Amino acid sequence: MNGVNRGVETPRATKVLPPHLFDWQLPPEWSWGPGGMVGDYRHYQEVVDALGRSLSLVTAPDPAHTPWLFEEAKQLAQRSHPSIPTTYHYWTAYRDARRGPGYLRRWVTGETVRARLARLGLADIPYVFQMLRGACSTLSYLHETGIAHGGLNGDALWTTPTGRLWMLEWQWAVPREAIPPGVRPGNGPLEIRSLEASRPMRAELLPMPPEWESGEWIPTPASDQWQLAAMCFTALTGEAPPSRGAPPIKLVRPETPESMATALDRALSPNAADRFPSLAVLLRAVDRGDPARTVVMVRGEPDSTAQESAEARVRWAVGDDYEILSKLGSGAFGTVWRARDLSLEREVALKALHPAIARDDKAVRAFWREAKLAAQLAHPAIVPIYDWDSSGDLSWYTMELAEEGSVASLVARSGPRQAAEIASQVEQVLDGLNVAHANGILHRDLKPENILIDRYQRWRITDFGIANVTGEDVAGTTGTPAFAAPEQLLGEQQGPAADCFALAAIVYFTMTGEPPFGDDDARSILARQLSERADLVPFPTVIANWFRTAFAAKPEDRFADGLEMKKAWGKATEKVLARQRGPWWRRVVS
Q1: 3-class SS at 226?
Q2: Domain assignment of residue 4, yes or no
Q3: What's the CA gap between 376 and 470, in Å, rounded?
Q4: Closest CA to 168 of 141, 144, 128, 135
Q5: What residues make up the domain containing 45?
Q6: Could you give the 3-state DSSP secondary structure of residue 510?
Q7: Residue 31's closest CA among 11, 15, 53?
Q8: Same domain as 269, residue 136
Q9: Residues 70 and 119 in one domain
Q10: Are 125 and 257 spatial neighbours (Cβ–Cβ below 8 Å)?
Q11: Average of per-residue pLDDT values in the chain
Q12: pLDDT tens sequence across 194-239
């Protein structure tokens, strides 16, 4: 296929509602979300339902493509795989309705493979392993139904901040007769930066498999295999492979594991018959060289080699109940893993104490205390604790997996957010914080990393590691300096006002990308806090006044509690949003 029919540009973000949705009327209590994505013959618009969940409304801008859209929705409704977003509901267009056609599915966030490579440069080896495993599993499931994808490119694979992989662009994975004549998937250019320098390298459009060179687009499992291998080649080398005669990957990226390089070289064979008979066989060939997948688990104590591996120890300890999938993060006291609960068939976050710390009885008691404190708090804005246990010198507990990462990763990935986008989330977190305080629990270490985001974009508080129960000694230096209240940095008595100060600092960070009083040494931060030197110029007056009260140096000058702070935030943001909805001259003079 010499000329690529690109249709619409490959997925890109947009904050403008497209013309074909102008006349839509959503159900009562539903609203349009802050943005959408323009895709290949599709538009993906975020909508918020009456329960506050973010969903994706998938539509076809061209009315002639309605039967194709319906077939896509029907196919997704019948599929069940962790990497495939299933159809929740299909809105049919009819005379009395002011919406449709379109279907609802999960709103997938994170970033595409293409966007990640453009942001970070050449992919590291573990990321390519992850991409291969997730895509091979998904495509193998699809191939068993007798359908090939046919539209694999850097925009079809998404990864969430917690490492979960999603495969999209499902408009191509339908029976061929459902796709309008002349319509073909498109691929956009990709800009990557090299490992050695910041010099941009623009990759060409992802080449089509050699068997499509005659001009016919005929998706098969073998062509899917080639396209997936081509994506991995681009991720590893920064260049799209030629249809024929691709150089050996080890030659271009020498540190690539032998098993991965050999498998990808074979998958890129010009002759489809020379590729692997299936993606499952390809994956087995790749996994033979991945040390993370070659640990042999035996009953009894782990041997000395396993003792040197934190992952091996956790696998040994929890292997009867949980499958460890990947590492989410690590701190001074423990590591958080993405795991699958084998009994309930659900993914969870598993937090395990570092072995050295687990030998300290005091540390273990504090760890259990953290789990029990969090388990006492049942609120939508607080991450629930499921279970806790120990084996040998390893202690852990499991909690709900917040698949969209944290507020910190959101800002790092997407930049500062507007008040309209976070208004309801801040209210929810303040409500949850108020519940914790009403139960006599102070968090004392609120920071962007401890506000997680679930699959519906809801913010949730986690990590009560240094929390205190009212009545205990709550003096002493605690918290993360950039987000800690002055009384915390001074080691003075602390109350709910300290948590409210920290949450306001998180809101400031979310809206600006910077902590309100800097992030250098604690002494300098404290000096700015005591003189109340936060830069509030960028904010509307009502928001600035809210920050001014929240950042008061004296606790008694701040909001009395989370409830009062929530009400003040609601009034401030409502005024800002009302101005934005009003005429242009009101926005200018306000």
Answers
A1: helix
A2: no
A3: 14
A4: 135
A5: 12-106
A6: helix
A7: 53
A8: yes
A9: no
A10: yes
A11: 83
A12: 333 333 333 335 558 999 988 788 999 999 999 999 999 999 999 8
**Residue that has been written with the tokens 């936060």 in this structure:** 534
Q: How does DSSP classify residue 177? A: G
Same domain, 514 and 418: yes
Query: Which residue, 348, 374, 400, sits at the end of a domain?
Result: 400
User: Could you tell me if residue 588 is inside a domain?
Assistant: no
The residue type at 533: R
Does residue 471 share a domain with residue 572?
yes
pLDDT-based confidence at 479, cuts 50/70/90?
low
Q: Are 343 and 254 in a shared domain?
A: no
| Same-domain pairing of 142 and 220 | yes
Q: How many domains does the chain have?
A: 4
Give the three-class secondary structure for 337. Answer: strand
Q: What burial class does residue 544 get, using C-beta atoms within 10 Å of its C-beta: 0-12 exposed, 13-18 middle, 19+ buried?
A: middle
Q: Which two tokens stand for residue 43?
A: 């538009």
Q: For 351-373, write each residue's pLDDT tens digit.
A: 888 877 777 777 777 777 767 77
Task: Work out the angle between the directed axes of helices 407-414 and 496-512 (0-180°, nearest 10).
Answer: 20
Alpha helix (H) residue ranges in 476-519: 486-489, 496-512
Q: Tell me the pTM.
A: 0.64
| Any domain includes 189 | no
- Both 433 and 577 in one domain: the answer is yes
351, 436: one domain: no
Q: For the domain that residue 342 is a member of, what is the CATH number?
A: 3.30.200.20
* C-alpha–C-alpha distance, residues 376 and 370, integer Å: 10
| Residue from 56, 241, 193, 74 nearest 145 by CA | 74
> Is residue 493 included in any domain, yes or no?
yes
Q: Tokens 């994706």 identify what position?
A: 56
Distance CA 86, CA 90 (A): 11
Nearest to 57 by CA among 7, 2, 82, 20: 20
Cis status, amide bond into 101, omega within 30 of 0: yes
How many secondary structure helices (H) and strands (E) does the chain include? 19, 20
- Token pair recorded at residue 455: 């699959």
**pLDDT tens for each residue of 74-84:** 999 999 888 99
Residue-wise over 432-450: b if at least 16 C-beta within 10 A, else e? bbbbbbeeebbbbbbbbbb
Single-letter code of the amino acid located at 264: L
